[in-house]
Amino acid sequence: MTVKIKDVARRAGVSVTSVSRVLNGEKYVSEDILNRVNQAIEELNYSPSYIARSLKKQKTNTIGVIVPDLTSNFYSTILSSIEETASKYGYNLIVCNIAENLSKELKYLHIFQEMRVEGIIIMHEKTNEEIVNFIRNATMPILFSSVQSPDADFISVLIDDYQAAYDATEYLIRSGHTAISYLGGDLEDVTSGQNRYNGFRDALSKHHITIPEEYVKFGDYKLPSGHRLMGELLALAQPPTVVFAASDDMAVGALNCVLDQGFRVPEDVSIMGFDGSTITDIVRPSITSMQQPIYEMGQVSLENLHRLIIRDKHRPQADIMLQHQLVERESCKTMHPSNSR
Amino acid sequence: MTVKIKDVARRAGVSVTSVSRVLNGEKYVSEDILNRVNQAIEELNYSPSYIARSLKKQKTNTIGVIVPDLTSNFYSTILSSIEETASKYGYNLIVCNIAENLSKELKYLHIFQEMRVEGIIIMHEKTNEEIVNFIRNATMPILFSSVQSPDADFISVLIDDYQAAYDATEYLIRSGHTAISYLGGDLEDVTSGQNRYNGFRDALSKHHITIPEEYVKFGDYKLPSGHRLMGELLALAQPPTVVFAASDDMAVGALNCVLDQGFRVPEDVSIMGFDGSTITDIVRPSITSMQQPIYEMGQVSLENLHRLIIRDKHRPQADIMLQHQLVERESCKTMHPSNSR
What we know:
Chains A, B: One of its GO terms (molecular function) is DNA binding. Two copies of one chain form a homodimer. Chain A is α/β, with parallel strands linked by helices and 341 residues long.
C-alpha cells in the first residue's frame, strides 16, 4: 500500500498544505511543523523518490557556484566533480568566477538570488559584512566547500587544514629533514593561510626544531610566486633541504625554479605540495603532496547542499570534515634511514 | 553643444521612439531604420558613452558562456580573459560547463534565454539540429569562440587551424625531420580535428614526405590519450623522431610517456604541441607549441559580442581570424643545420 501525502498529514497532525510546503522546501514553515512532518515521513517510510518528483515541478533545479579563480587546477578539479554529481541529481550548474574580488562575489550572489537558484556553493573564504549579511538573509541554502564558513550557522565541507599541515611537516621531520622551509599562502585566509601555517609551526615546535626566519615566506598560492620565493631560498648561504609549499601550484613554481637553476629534485632539494591537484602527477619529477580528497569534496558538497535544499532528515547539522592523505611521489627524499622515532 | 536623441531622430528622419529602440538593441527594428539611425549617430558623433548609459537601464548586463571542459588548461585561460574583459564592460559572466554533452548544452542555452542574458559565447563545435535551431531563433547575439560556427550567420573568433598546422609541420620539416608522427583530435571536430589534420597532411605532401600509417593516431585532446598513443609509437620498430600533437595536453602526455620510459626530450624524440596553453611553460622541458593567441581570443570575443549586443556600427560582419604563432621552447631539436632550402 502506497503511503500518500494525506497519510503523512494525518500522522503529523497538520494540513496537507503544510506537508506540501515542507516538501517544497519553503522557508517560512515553523520548526515545529517541520519536525512533525519529517518525523511522520520517517515513521511511515514515505517514498523519497516521490518527494523528489513532487519537488521538481516548482523548482528551477539550478545551483550557483562561486569560484575564486578558474585558472587554478584545484578549483577546476573540484568543479568537475560538483558538475558530475549535480547532473546525477538533475541540477544545472551556474559557475561564477570572482577572480578574488569581493564586490564581484556580492554581485553574483544577488544574481543567483534573482535567478532563484535552489542553493549556492561558495569556495571563497575572504568575506565582508555585506556578504555575511547576504548569506544570513538568503532564501536558499548556502554551503561552503574547501573553506571555513564565516558563520557557524553555515555548513562547510573541508579537511582539517591545521592537522594536514602538521602531519605533512612531521612526515618531513621523520624523513630526516631539519632545514625545512615553508612557502605559505595569504594569512588572511583562515583555512589555507593561517591553519596550514600554524600546523607547520606547531609540528616544528613539538620536535624542537628551529629554523631561520628567512625559511618562511608567503606568496599567493600561484605558480609564479612559488618560483620567485624559491629563487630567494636558493640564494641563501644555507638553503633548506626541503620546501613545503601551501599549494601545489606554488610547489610546481618552486620545482621549476630549482630545475631552471640546474639543480635536481629531490637530490639537491626536496619539495612537498599541498592539495593533491592533478598537476602534481603531470610534472616530472611528480610532486609529493598533502592531498585533499578533491573529487570527494565536490561530490559531498553537492550531496549535502541537495539535502539542505530538500530539507532531508539527514541534512548536515555541522561542518563535514573529510580525510587528508599524504601521497608520496618523486619530489621528496629521505635524509637517512627512517628510524628517527 | 551636446547632441541629443531628438537630433539623431531628426537627422535619421525617424521618431525618437525608433532611435530609442535601436539604442536599446531591440530585435524587431527594420534594417532600413537601423541603418539610418546608425548613420545619423555617426554623422552627428552622438556620444557612445551616453548610448552605453541609456542602454544600461533595461538590461541584465549578463553574458552566458558555454564551455566544453573546465579542466582543460586552454578553456580556463580563455575564460579568464573573457572574464577580465567582461568586467571592463560591466558585464557579469555566467559559465556553464557542458562536459562535452550536447543535451546539457541545449539545456543551458534555454536557461540563458530564461535569464535574459544579453549575449552568449559558445566554445563548443559539435552540434545538433536542436541547438542549431535554438541559435537561429535566439533573441540575443551568439558568438562562437575558438571554434567554427555551424552557420554562416554567426560570427566566430578563431585562428586558421589548417594553416597553423601546416606551418607547424613545415617548421618540423625545415628542422630536418622526416619521420614525423601526428597525434590528432576528434575528426568530427572541424576546427581542431579535421583542419589541423589536413594542414599536417598537406604540408607533408607538398614536401613529398610519406610516413608509415601507424605514425598517425587519434585521441581526445586530453593528457592520458597522449600518454597512451606515445606508448604505441615508442613500441614501433622505427619510432618517429618527432611527434606533433593536436593539443598541448596530449603533447604533455606524450612528453611524460617518453620521460617515464627513460628516454630524453628532445635528444631522443622531439615533441610539438598545439594551443600555447600555460602548461607548455610549466612542464620541463617546456614544450614548443603552435600558439593560439588565447588571451587575445577571449578579449576579442567579448568585445565583439558587446558590439553585437549594442548593434554598434563596427560590429563584426564576418568571422574574425586571429594570428597563430609558433613559439619555440625546449622540446624540439633540429636534425641538421637548417639549410634545407
